[in-house]
Amino acid sequence: MKLAPVDYLILAIYFGFVLGIGWRLRKSVESSRDFLTAGRSVPVWITSLAFLAANLGAQEVIGMSASGAKYGIMTAHFYWIGAVPAMLFVGVFMMPFYYGSRARSVPEYLKLRFDEKTRGLNALTFAVMTVFSSGISMYALGLLLQLVLGWSFTASVLLSAAIVLIYTLLGGLTSAIYNEVLQFFLIVLGFAPLAIMSVAKAGGWSGIESRLPSVMTHSWKYMGDASQNPMGVEVFSMVAGLGFVLSFGYWCTDFLVVQRAMAADSMSAARRTPLIAAFPKMMMPFIVIVPGIAALAIAKMNIGYALPLKGDGYDYDQAFITLMSHFYPSGMLGVGLTALMASFMSGMAGNVTAFNTVFTYDIYQGYIHKGAPDAHYLKVGRITTVVGTALSIMTAYLAQHYNNIMDLLQLVFGFVNAPLFATFLLGMFWRRATGHGAFTGLLTGTTFAALTHGLTVAEHKGGWIAPLHPFPSTMAQNFWIAIFAWTSCFVVTIVVSLLTKPRPAEELQGLVYGLTKVPHDTGVSWYRKPAPVAVLVIAVLLVLNFWFR
Amino acid sequence: MLDLRATTGWFFALLGVILAALGVFSPGLRASLTDLNVNLYCGIVMIAFGGVMLLFARKRS
Q1: Which residues contact A408 (CB under 8 A, 6 or more apart)?
Q2: Which of A332, A333, A337, A338 is most worth mutating to test chain B (most B CB atoms within 10 A of its CB)?
């Protein structure tokens, strides 16, 4: 694949604009709060699109289209059962506590609600995890550009990291959020034409249905039995494991996304941020998953497109970008690749801005140096931004050389994350939950996750204690690990909480359901209220699930 | 403070003009799997999107 000068021109214009946004916003940063939390002043349409874009990294785009080619429309469960219900929950039910508590970060909320050790555990694992995952996605992007375009790994990694670093250093979180919106529009306008053209080429949805096995075009029909679908997952673990534990765990507790909503200019705007984001989120499968499915159908038509090979199988990760080169001429191809870079940058900026906030407020100010003037923390925030980026780059190179270590780390983080939602659910809705309960619950949940992995096998993974139970796929294994981790954390948190001393009610004002005044927006139109918007989202969601059943 | 609508509007208008110009002056640029003048059509859509964003920005100020 070869790019023309005009493609590079488009890439350069994009770089110019993102840096320009950072430059124009540099004066808005006067305090550490401006830099790290955007001073809670961003309009709701901007926070909504940023909420979506921060999660829409290059790995998401490449990975979801790859899954589309591999598993078919079932991949859409990650959106229609996974993400969207969780986004509704965080907006309607949890945001009042996050935003109303005046906490500056998710770990800080844990400190206010529970205690210092629960916060420390969460802050530390989150900080390490964000740096790590931004490094991993940097590696994935560098590898892909090297493979398809022949660009040097070092050049693409360093250049894209440097640009993200510059605009985040200049304008802080505000700059990252503003750029995420531009990146979101570019992703949609850059990828949607590919989706439309590839589906049209394959003869529309009915043409795809006639060319592929029926299991690829139905999301629910083959879910009754794990052996009937290529994911190897049955309906219970899909709904409970992915839909409930993993998705709620990510969208409701991960500071990377919650931070965007917390930057909104009012409580009502913070609550509506994930709800408004849910509309475009529901439609994302059409531009990231469907092209993957169409690629498979087109490959069967023998018209000069074949899925790239790797070893004796397909390299699904390359499906999206090779499809692009078969539909986009020079010019639009530049836009498409720029959109891919944009998705990478929005994901990376999301990680970097979440990392610097958690490190500065929850680790540095919490444990290393308390009580300094604000200017000091602003400086620390800026230095952390640079250090975080440098660590991500190092991780990307580590991933290049030691793939096994990365897999292991990813696994361990999965264990740490799986029980989190139980802790937050109890913390927000059960005032009797205590700090000791939360902390023991988290540790138990992580232990149970590791045990489940050690006692079960799927595709030769796990079973390092004793291979007691086989799973049809690693995906099914992951969902069940999550279910066990969540349940054990939930039970242990309740038991230990009942055995330990509760905190007095006055200390929990604004932190727990029943002791927090949830504002009722009176006198505004219905579309400015959270509940009606959520109902509308559910209606569309039901239609989508029914349509592609 | 920066008006993001205006910035987004200018960005896509500029991109759209480049693409549409390519579509008009090098109509022969085609990818292997389609006979459409992709640059022209995508360029027009981007100009329209950019224009709407600029209109929004203008209306407020």
Answers
A1: none
A2: A332
